[in-house]
Design a protein that fits this description.
Blueprint lengths: L5 H10 L15 E6 L6 H4 L7 E6 L4 H15 L3 E7 L9 H11 L4 H8 L9 H14 L9 E6 L6 E3 L2
Parallel strand pairs: 1-2, 1-3, 3-4
Antiparallel strand pairs: 4-5
Length: 169
């Protein structure tokens, strides 16, 4: 297990929890943020968001397709409208192809047909160009019939080197 005392950290967090338990389930800013799971990103902080203001959906690469189920639930059941897609510089998704990762997994389990079959059925979603991936994800959401059209869908890049964001689309 990670070298973190989660219980002690939670005790400190809970001691200062205040009225946060009274926040409503729908986010107060009617906002969904789709971003990467990268441990260097703290989207609430770099966007100036407080607890209860937005849904933050995270996955490897901040991919819209993997976030679709959560976006639909957020919009249709919890009233969100606007969607921010935020990818970031120095992303691990820029460093491999599906075939490279499949080979790595298969080679770690030689002769295991179950593992080979399972990994060959996955699309990991790496991308070779950061800005293009943001544009593709925004276009995917704007063109998807289940994503609401009432709000804005915009795409951004967070620069891990500076902490700044820049709008792509």
């Amino acid at each position: 297990m990670a070298q973190v005392d989660f219980k002690q950290a939670n005790e400190r967090y809970a001691a200062n929890f205040g009225d946060n338990g009274k926040l409503s389930i729908p986010p107060s800013k009617n906002l969904v943020v789709v971003t990467c799971m990268d441990a260097r990103l703290k989207p609430e902080e770099f966007l100036g968001l407080n607890l209860g203001e937005a849904h933050i959906i995270r996955n490897a690469g901040g991919l819209a397709k993997e976030s679709l189920r959560s976006i639909i639930i957020s919009q249709r059941l919890l009233g969100t409208k606007d969607v921010l897609v935020i990818h970031h510089s120095d992303c691990g998704m820029l460093t491999f192809t599906d075939e490279q990762l499949r080979s790595k997994v298969i080679n770690a389990h030689p002769g295991n047909a179950t593992v080979s079959e399972a990994v060959n059925g996955l699309q990991f979603g790496p991308f070779p160009d950061l800005d293009s991936s943001v544009k593709d994800d925004v276009a995917f959401l704007k063109n998807h019939p289940l994503v609401l059209k009432e709000g804005n869908i915009t795409g951004w890049v967070y620069e891990v080197e500076t902490g700044k964001i820049r709008e792509v689309v």
